[in-house]
Amino acid sequence: MTSHTTLASPDSYSVAWIAVLPIERAAAEAMLDEEHAPPTGFIRHQSDTNIYTWGRVGEHNIVIVSLAAGVYGTTSAAITASHLLASLRFIRVVLLVGIGGGIARPDEGRDIRLGDIVVSQPDGTTGGVCQYDLIKAKLDGKLEHKGFLRPPPEVLLKALAKIQAYHERKESKVPYFLQQMLERNPKMGKRSKQNSGYAHQGLDNDRLFKASCDHVPGPDCRGCDTADQVQRDPRDTSDPEIHYGIIASGNMLVKDAATRDRIVANVGEDCICFEMEAAGLMNNFPCLVIRGICDYADSHKSDRWQRYASATGAAYAKELLEYVPAAEVQETKRALEVLESGWFLFLSPRVILTNT
Questions:
Q1: What are phi and psi of 303, to 5 degrees?
Q2: Residue-wise pLDDT tens digits, 181-205
Q3: Where, if anywhere, are coiled coils annotated (predicted)?
Q4: pLDDT tens digits, residue range 284-305?
């Protein structure tokens, strides 16, 4: 990766890549084809506390930003996004890339495993992300969504269709980008007691347990009852698979199976992942959410797979950008215009309205 390029204007950057954790940002920066110095004439808005990384992926100029260390949730994500738009008014496409908890249901065709990639995709009733803490009970005892979040820009949805068609014929480039990342950044492949590294963590360390099985205290699951382990068909490779569907977003960290399954039942959607920031971003402007799966949102979760999952999500984002024409990005409405145009949520379930 070359560096020290300086573009003539901050307006040359039309794609924002938002991470939450430092490990997610590290993976994002490792995917850059070229790193840039801050562009000439960039003036940070007085309200903007973000610190940016500038660079290029393919034909796209990218700005990378993360939340403040130790800060999570929809509100923090919304603040980061609003600060970004205050300083960078020509951002048109936003990717939210990081880690999430997988909702694995292998018996129902959702064989999601650690290190796999989940991508938010509209299904006709949601924009790809459902805010699970925006649900109300009706008088008849049924649950009803109070609102749905807007789908990603059309240019990204067209890219999703194209990359899915390509993957029907050819293998994903994600494994190649992961290998390239480790070759360029040898430290990312090293492991220690405090750092599991950004390489695959081994099939033996990916165990899915029945919802009724609580984790036996300890750094791993060696003490957990193997009789409660869900038996899954072995895969031919350790390369991550890619899943498209609804991502559940909210401010609560889901880390026990009972809570996980109750939320999924209440949402009433075919959710495949939990995360904590997307709803805050999509309340402000539409984005695509990409998550590497680091746990199963149950009591067995640990930090072991977080770095590798950060890398798989980032590698998919890089591959997806190859299918996003730069010329069409420039024809996409600026994110700030979307925000100012008055999009707002709900009023009626399964309907999104504007006040234009």
A1: -85, -5
A2: 999 999 999 988 778 899 999 998 9
A3: none
A4: 667 899 999 999 888 777 889 9
Any residues with CB less than 8 A from the CB of 13 and at least 6 apart, and which?
7, 39, 54, 61, 62, 63, 88, 90, 91
d(CA 94, CA 76): 16
pLDDT, tens digit (0-9, with 9 covering 90-100), for 120-141: 998 877 788 888 776 544 444 4
Measured between alpha carbons, how far is 50 from 162 in angstroms, rounded to an integer?
33
Domain containing residue 189: 2-354
Confidence of residue 330 (pLDDT cuts 50, 70, 90): very high
Cα distance from N-terminal residue to C-terminal residue, the chain: 45
Maximum distance among all Cα pairs of the chain, rounded to whole angstroms: 62
**Domain total for the chain?**
1
- 168-207 burial, b for 16+ CB within 10 Å, e for fewer? eeeebbbbebbebbbeebeebeeeeeeebbbbbbeeeebb
More confident residue, 251 or 144: 251
Q: What are the φ and ψ backbone dihedral angles of 2, each rounded to 5 degrees? A: -85, 165
User: What CATH code is carried by the domain that includes residue 138?
Assistant: 3.40.50.1580
83, 49 in Cβ contact below 8 A? Answer: yes
Q: Which two tokens stand for residue 53?
A: 């990384």
Distance CA(350)–CA(239), nearest Å, equals 36
Question: If you average pLDDT over every residue of the chain, what do you get?
Answer: 84
- Give the pair of three-digit tokens for residue 351: 């309907």
Copy the structure tokens of residue 316. 């998919």
Task: Say if strands 343-348 and 117-120 run parallel, antiparallel, or are unpaired.
Answer: unpaired
Instruction: State the amino acid at position 125 in one-letter form.
Output: T
DSSP E strand stretches across the chain: 2-5, 15-19, 34-36, 53-57, 60-66, 93-102, 117-120, 129-131, 135-137, 143-145, 242-249, 271-275, 288-295, 343-348, 351-354
* Helix (H), strand (E) at residue 21: none
